[in-house]
Amino acid sequence: MIDVENLTKRYGKTVAVDGLSFQVRPGQVTGFLGPNGAGKSTTMRMIIGLDRPTAGRATVLGRPYAAHAAPLCVLGALLEARSVHRGRSARNHLLALAQTHGIPARRVDEVLETVGLGKVAGRRAGGFSLGMGQRLGIAAALLGDPAVVMLDEPVNGLDPDGVRWIRTLLKDLAAEGRTVLVSSHLMSEMAVTAEHLVVVGRGRLLADTTVSELIASVAVSRVLVRSPDATALRDALVSTGATVTGREPGLLDVDGATPESIGELAARSGLVLHELTPRRASLEEAFMELTEGQGL
Ligand SMILES: Nc1ncnc2c1ncn2[C@@H]1O[C@H](COP(=O)(O)OP(=O)(O)O)[C@@H](O)[C@H]1O
Ligand SMILES: [Mg+2]
């Protein structure tokens, strides 16, 4: 469990995080979503004490991160700016981390296997590709077998295989009962990875909800209508107050009417329908609506 209470961070005149409060619960993947500059990385740094809040506080399992006797065994993090000793092998990098935190050496080989770096463990980490570097960073985060895992934009720059791998790993970690917080500026990625969403913009909380609730909350839902009588149908729909746009002849995009009401109107008017398809809002559209008027 991560508990963020009224967290605020100012850098001079910039308010990076502005009175943010949310909780991250175990057993599910929570997406921390917001455009670049929204304050996600700053919030994550404050959660692990790398940045001092201007106001408010963040706790991990009920205490400030630094107050835990073995912090790596409580929360493992991959932050945006990664630090690896470039000359060391992947195994030695992890061994050094393990030794300074009282973690048994056998755990190093376990996490190397988990992230799929077992075969290249003896290679210099400095020569790793971006994807391998991410995997090594995640291995470090998992080293202490932590109850809480926090990753900052882990899919940035990864190939589709790497993206799929991270997605599965996060779901597995959550299924083991861990608390998983993962940030992203990509709504499409969060839609398939996270169950719960904490959405931020300009340092403020915009939504704290499930992915499905967020999509359902969007007022705009359209219906696609295909009809050989499109012109007459359009006039009939507009007279009921619906908004109708057409992309091509015979095809109407209807806003402000349900498929049921459109079908019944067509029947009453003796107009033929070839297609009547409800279009659910995408998470992208939900996000756009949420951030509208926020100047994001
Ligand atoms: N060390 C810093 N010094 C000054 N400004 C910073 C610093 N870190 C972040 N900021 C500013 O705080 C805001 C939030 O940044 P950040 O937390 O990195 O957002 P995100 O991770 O959501 O992209 C941005 O306007 C950024 O320029
Ligand atoms: Mg960031």
UniProtKB/TrEMBL annotation:
It holds the Pfam family ABC_tran. Residues 2-227 form the ABC transporter domain. Keywords: ATP-binding, Nucleotide-binding, Transport. PROSITE patterns: ABC_TRANSPORTER_2 (PS50893). One of its GO terms (molecular function) is ATP hydrolysis activity. The keyword Transport applies. InterPro entries: AAA+_ATPase, ABC_transporter-like_ATP-bd, P-loop_NTPase. Belongs to the ABC transporter superfamily. This is Multidrug ABC transporter ATP-binding protein. It comes from Virgisporangium ochraceum.
